[in-house]
Amino acid sequence: MADVGRRKKPHCLALAADVKGMRMEGPISTHGQVTNLAKHIVSVEHDHWKIPDGTILAPIYKRVAGFILDVIFVMSVLSILGGRFDGQFRVMLAWDLTTWISPDFHHSLAWTIAILLSHFLYWKYSGLRFSRSLGQRIMGLAIVQENGDPMNSKNWDIRSFRKLLYLIPILNLWFISRDLFLIHKRHTHQSQIDLSAGSIVAIANSLPVAHRGPIK
Q1: At how many degrees (to 10) do helices 105-130 and 153-163 cross?
Q2: pLDDT per 10-residue tile (average), the chain, 216 residues
Q3: Among 6, 75, 127, 162, who pairs with 156 as Cys (CB 3.0-4.6 Å)?
Q4: How far, in Å, CA of 213 to CA of 173, rounded?
Q5: Strand bridging mode 88-89 / 84-85
Q6: Can you give the pLDDT at residue 193?
Q7: pTM for this one?
Q8: Is residue 14 part of a domain?
């Protein structure tokens, strides 16, 4: 029995050292804190942990703020380009129920298409060029693949198209609430959109230097 105890002791010491090392150098941080050991073990066992070491995932408030800034920016541009008519910006016809049920409903339809298309193109091409949108840049965020590599065109198509669901009145309440819940629940802070596009939203300067090149 004494021999068995002696044989087990080195193993126990090694395990304790590994646990201590995990606490000190955990593979990923959320809001600046190291994830717990249990989450790491589960992710490694199921091969779900591809995120670069030291990466800090974006907190919900930064993601929400970035989205709001993006919408304000795109809508401001459309308002300026569309001009005013009858005391209001033409772009607001997209939400004008009176126009929707009138013979001139095509004006509301046209502006709705313009809003959705503009946001899609904005999110896609700002992502391809800068690895983030203007709002995300202001909030210090970056969008990368789960392993830290830059997103490709197909990734951005999926992500940009699915984000349009956030712009549809009434329906957006469900999609936004669902994704906020998923971001809060998942240790990778991924929304359903992130999972579909294979992306993560991270604090830009927390990514390893090797992965920061495309981020502008």
Answers
A1: 140
A2: 46 44 44 43 49 84 97 96 88 90 92 97 95 95 90 95 95 94 90 93 86 79
A3: 127
A4: 36
A5: antiparallel
A6: 94
A7: 0.76
A8: no
What is the span of the domain harbouring residue 182? 29-39+52-211
Give the β-pairing of 33-34 and 28-30. Answer: antiparallel
How far is Cα of residue 193 from the mean position of the Cα atoms in its chain? 8
In degrees rounded to 5, what are phi and psi of residue 150? Answer: -65, 150
Q: Which pLDDT does position 49 carry in this prediction?
A: 55
Domain count, the chain: 1
Q: Tell me the sheet residues that pair with 199.
A: 145
Burial 89-104 (b: 16+ CB within 10 A, else e): bbbbbbebeebbeeee
Give the model's pLDDT for residue 59: 94
Q: Taking the mean position of all CA atoms in its chain, how far away is CA 179? A: 10
Q: Is 93 contained in some domain?
A: yes
